[in-house]
Design brief:
The protein is an all-alpha fold and about 270 residues long. It has one domain. It has ten helices and no strands. The model has no long low-confidence stretch (mean pLDDT about 85).
């Protein structure tokens, strides 16, 4: 890992994150993802803990597929900006459309894995309600919900890793699943430390800005009037979500810009 190259990549990714077209595209996609989150959160009002758990994590996994597709377009735009090519964004979107549609299916295995974990958790909760032996099963299998929830959090981390590592490979190399898997394995095996550092650096602006926005949202809920009507609560979340998504868009653009930079840096070190 060369510090000078890393500094150049970070500064360039940060500078080129401020682009009106990319920010508008990212804001629109994030608002659509936010609409999914608000919709599922509204469905979770008054639901059981088991259903609420599913409605909390499921939109996150669904949005990952949408963000993966958007990231391909952003990385291709970024690549042309670096090369100083005068290619219209509409043309990039038109050429990328088949790959954008196909890339969204990469998140399906993670979604199915989560649904399987959720079903297992539901079976465990059902067994606990069995008359006579429910309490015994709950004690003997107390580790089961812990492991299932831990696996769910690991899937969330895998989702973020997929967005960082897989998106630039698809953007540059296409949708050949075997080739994508080979490149991903070789990259992760060649230098795990550098890959982890690159991933954390890409998340820094996202975590910082996201933390500020979440803190602002929590403070807003503590000082503003909370509606007793669930419908009014959902509408409040919706209108808060709009500036939330718009403010988060520069950090998301930087995330994919730096993912492209990290991919090129690792490719120079270990050509695949």
């Amino acid at each position: 890992m060369n510090f000078s190259d890393l500094q150049t990549a970070f500064n360039r990714a940060l500078t080129l994150s401020i682009s009106r077209t990319k920010l508008i595209l990212t804001s629109v996609v994030l608002m659509f993802c936010g609409l999914l989150v608000v919709f599922f959160r509204g469905l979770a009002i008054g639901a059981s803990h088991w259903v609420t758990l599913s409605l909390t994590f499921l939109p996150f996994f669904l949005c990952a597929g949408i963000l993966l597709s958007m990231g391909i377009v952003l990385i291709r735009m970024y690549h042309n900006e670096i090369k100083q090519r005068t290619v219209s964004y509409r043309e990039i979107l038109k050429k990328s459309w088949p790959i954008v549609i196909g890339a969204s299916y990469f998140s399906i295995p993670i979604i199915l894995s989560y649904l399987l974990l959720w079903i297992f958790l539901g079976i465990f909760l059902l067994l606990r309600l069995t008359p006579g032996i429910g309490e015994v099963i709950g004690v003997l299998l107390a580790f089961a919900p812990f492991i299932l929830n831990l696996c769910t959090l690991i899937l969330c981390i895998l989702n973020l890793a997929m967005l960082f590592f897989v998106t630039p490979i698809i953007a540059f190399k296409g949708l050949n699943r075997i080739h994508v898997a080979q490149m991903l394995i070789e990259r992760l095996k060649s230098d795990p430390f550098s890959n982890i550092v690159y991933g954390l650096m890409a998340l820094l602006p996202l975590l910082f800005l996201g933390g500020l926005l979440v803190l602002a949202a929590v403070l807003t809920e503590t000082v503003c009037y909370i509606c007793s009507d669930p419908l009014h609560n959902v509408l409040q979340w919706f209108f808060i979500m709009i500036p939330f998504a718009a403010a988060l868009s520069p950090a998301v653009v930087f995330f994919f810009n730096f993912a492209a930079e990290a991919h090129v840096l690792m490719h120079r070190k270990t050509p695949i």
